[in-house]
Design a protein that fits this description.
By secondary structure, the protein is α/β, with parallel strands linked by helices. Helix content is 54%, strand content 11%. It has helices spanning 2-36, 39-44, 74-88, 110-120, 137-151, 162-174, 194-216; strands at residues 59-62, 95-98, 128-131, 155-160, 178-183. Strands 3-2-1-4-5 form a 5-stranded parallel beta sheet, sandwiched between helices. Strand 2, helix 4 (110-120) and strand 3 form a beta-alpha-beta unit. Helix 1 packs across helix 7 (194-216), helix 5 crosses helix 6 and helix 6 runs parallel beside helix 7 (194-216). The longest helix is centred in the N-terminal third of the chain and has 35 residues, at 2-36. It is globular. 36% of the residues are buried.
Length: 220
């Protein structure tokens, strides 16, 4: 009887070991495909939209992550820099930076820090409007549309990351507000860095999940 129990445990351990081996092998293969194949490029390509740079009454910039003491993430810097370029080119006289923190605390937030950076890049504070009520892309579309309606603005240039652009444009258009996409980071299939491919893959997964969630809720 003891031998039977021992054999059974050995069999279970062997089966568990084989399962773990297959899992690890699959994980390793997935990483290799992401790092060294075009799969990330193929996934992110349908999310992008061609830039439509044209004169408009305003530039809308969706916020990205910043630290609590004002250090901007790469995404936040890219978006703000693109808005400054559009402003200096004379395409719009007003920059609206939209996005607040989920905590809702009364403190400096991403919009404040991105606004400061925009000012450092040459945009006067008189041309910068901060919208900090929004907690996500959907609420940004709602609050920015309301602000623009009060000011008589019926269209705007929209700045965000390339992978985020399709969902962002859909959210604004669902609110009957016309936006012209201007990606802050026009990714291409020639981006060969393995870490960059991983970043693109994660961004694509996040956005496909976001698109499904927004469609499920009827937000786009």
């Amino acid at each position: 009887m003891i031998r039977s129990i021992v054999r059974r445990h050995r069999s279970l351990l062997w089966s568990a070991g084989r399962i773990m081996l297959f899992i690890l092998a699959g994980y390793g293969l997935s990483l290799l495909l992401i790092f060294y194949s075009p799969i990330a490029d193929y996934l992110v390509a349908p999310l992008g939209m061609a830039a439509d740079r044209k004169p408009a009454p305003a530039i809308i910039v969706l916020t990205a992550w910043t630290t609590s003491d004002g250090v901007l993430s790469e995404e936040a810097m890219r978006r703000t820099h693109m808005a400054a370029r559009l402003y200096r080119e004379g395409l719009a006289p007003l920059v609206i930076i939209s996005g607040g923190e989920a905590t809702g605390e009364l403190r400096l937030e991403s919009a404040d820090f991105m606004g400061q950076f925009a000012n450092e890049l040459g945009i006067p504070w008189s041309a910068i409007l901060l919208e900090k009520k929004s907690r996500n892309t959907y609420t940004s579309a709602i609050h920015v549309r309301a602000l623009c309606r009060e000011m008589g603005i019926d269209r705007a240039l929209l700045v965000t990351d390339a992978a985020h652009m399709r969902r962002a444009v859909a959210a604004f258009r669902a609110q009957q507000f016309l936006v012209y996409p201007v990606p802050a980071d026009p990714w291409s299939v020639d981006w060969e860095s393995p870490l960059a491919r991983m970043k693109k893959f994660l961004a694509a997964m996040h956005e496909y999940g976001g698109l499904m969630y927004y469609r499920w809720n009827g937000w786009i």
